[in-house]
Structure formats: structure tokens, C-alpha cells
Amino acid sequence: MSQVARALHEARLDLLLLGALADRLRRAERGDVVRLHLDPPVEPAPVSFGAEERAAHVDGHGFCRAVAEARLAGPGGAIRVDVEAVGLPLAQVALAFGADEWVVTSKLSLRLFGEGDADQGRLALLRERELVGLVRAAGRVPRIVERRAGEAVERDPDETTPAARKFRAPGREIKEAR
Predict the structure, then answer these.
(1) What is the arrangement of strands in the sheet containing 141-148, beginning at the earlier edge strand?
(2) Residue 178 lies inside a defined structural domain of this protein
(3) Does residue 112 belong to any structural domain of this protein?
(4) Of the candidates 44, 38, 55, the residue with the CA atom closest to the CA atom of residue 132
(5) Looking at the domain assignment, is residue 127 inside a domain?
(6) Residue-by-residue DSSP string for 58-75
């Protein structure tokens, strides 16, 4: 643990203040883009949070504090959160504490709007929509990272299919009605 990390940890700053500082630094260093890794990442991140890091903290507060401290005192670069290991709600909150990449390799979908009998291609697109909607709800810009021929390929979210019309992010119906 570096001296800065130790000082931050020992200072026990208010969690929201710590999160705001980490988020401000994330915006300055990395911008508003959140990379969604749909396949296992090719390159390791300087800092990753998964099942082991989640288990090391009694509650979500400790986990969020660790993410913020990693942003403020870490080596810089990406802070990656394994969504399946820590849970989607905690991963979304981690975005406000300095995280800027999600790893979501499962092919599970929330199966919204009766999509249970859809083919696998449509389910994958719907899953992408769900994740993109959550990232946008956090005020961030999603980018999809997939592996093609062994290389990581980054792209914009797919907005061209009927699945885009079926998924509605929270509050979207109200905005569209106006």
C-alpha cells in the first residue's frame, strides 16, 4: 500500500466526499466513457475488483471506499469491476466512485418484455441494451469491447435492432411522452 493510499485509508474521509473526489479524478484522467467488456478482457487492468475484493469488505460501503481509494492513490488507468462477481447494483454504484470499466461475460439477460423465447442473437442484443441503459442512467457514455480473432475491438452500442425499441431505461417513457 502506497503512502497516499495509507493516508487516505487512515483519514476515514466521509464516503460521499471520497467518492466525489475519485469521480472528479476519473473524469479528468479517463473521461466519461465506460467500457463494457462482453468477453474476458485481453489486457489486464491496472486495478480490478472481483469476487475476492468484494468478499474482503463487510458491506458495499467498504467496497466503494476501496474503489475510490484505488482511483485516488492507485497507479492510474482503468479501474475494472467484474459485474457478475460483485453484483450489478454495486457495480453501478462503483461508477460514481471512480470505476470506468465493467466485465460482463455472462450471456444471461434480464429477459425483459417477454423475450424469454427469443433467439440467442436477440437476447445478446437485449442484454447489451440493458447494460447500456444502466451506464447512461449513471450519466456516462458506454462503449462495447468484444474479442474478435483474439483482439479486443471497441465499438459503439448497437442501436439498429428492434430490441432497442423494446428496452426503456427508467424515466424514458416520461421524456418520450413530452
Answers:
(1) 47-49, 79-82, 101-103, 33-37, 141-148, 151-155
(2) no
(3) yes
(4) 38
(5) yes
(6) SSHHHHHHHHHHHHHHS-
Exposure string over 14-39, b if 16+ CB within 10 A, otherwise e:
eeeebbebbbebbeeebeeebbbbbe
Domain count, the chain: 1
For residue 67, the enclosing domain spans 3-173
Query: pLDDT by residue (tens digit) across 25-78?
Result: 999 999 999 999 988 888 888 888 988 888 888 788 889 999 999 999 888 889
pTM equals 0.74
Give residue for cell 450471456. Answer: 107
Gap between the Cα atoms of 7 and 1, Å rounded: 10
CA distances from 73 to 13, 65, 70 (A): 14, 12, 5
User: Is 133 contained in some domain?
Assistant: yes
